[in-house]
Amino acid sequence: MAEKDDMRASIKLTTVADLFSTEESRADEKREKVMDIPLSEISDFPGHPFKVKADEAMLEMADSVKQYGVLVPGLVRPKADGGYEMVAGHRRKKASELAGKETMPCIVRELDDDQAIIIMVDSNLQRENISPSEKAFAYKMKLEAMNRQGQRTDLTSRQVVGRLESADIIGREVGESGRQIQRYIRLTELTPSILEMVDDKRIAFNPAVEISYLAEEEQHALYETMQSEDCTPSLAQAQRMKKLSQDGRLNVDVIFSILTEEKPNQKEKMIIRRERIDRFFPKDFTEKQKEDLIVQLLESWYKKRQRELER
Fold first, then answer.
1. Is residue 17 included in any domain, yes or no?
2. DSSP 8-class letter at 309
3. Which residue, of 32, 43, 77, 304, is most buried by count of CB atoms within 10 Å of its CB?
4. pTM beyond 0.85, yes or no
């Protein structure tokens, strides 16, 4: 009798729900669903390399979100200590905040760190305007993630790619060569002040790659000289400084002598004496802030003049 009772206990009875559920409904339970998640529960992705600016495009997105809501859900992953981590959708989250929304539609997906990094980078690389620094850190993050997943790669030690490597794979996905991907990654070796000049197109990409091989103190000296002399190195000058640095013969005086050489086909520059304009700016304004404000005022003056001419 006891043996029969044990046998009955071991038999798993089919529930009513199991009897009437279909294959389609069971598959639907496993399918990812869109959930409205409070913005306060979504944190940014650690080390997110893409800048989220409250610029004109962002304000337009915020107006769209206010009117129509977020049309494309974000992608988040659950955090071990509660809440969620944004994987794809940082700009949509910012637009939702500016639009006064409290929640955002998101897909919740279980992802490990490397899977999340690759998705985060790939989703942002679809944007039209991406700065060199954003590409540099994004490519580096993705390359390191692929390396941890078993792909062979050489992150920053050389510019030429030989056999098929992770850099070539990334390159094919974004329409670049593997060598170019590695050259972008070299930009992560630049000091923040010089990297900002690259983003602002005050230093061209190719010279910037060569400058990235200078030691940190050499880059600081170069930046100070560029600021004081209002000049930037050509590719040939950057290559010379790289070689001198490798030989241990680069110093402040050498940097100054190279930068102040007259370049071939050098364009004539308009120079405004500092004492003529400094009194118009707050004392804590940087050179870039002064330049941006001057350009902004000129653009306003130009638009006003165009309107007057059209009357």
1. no
2. H
3. 77
4. no
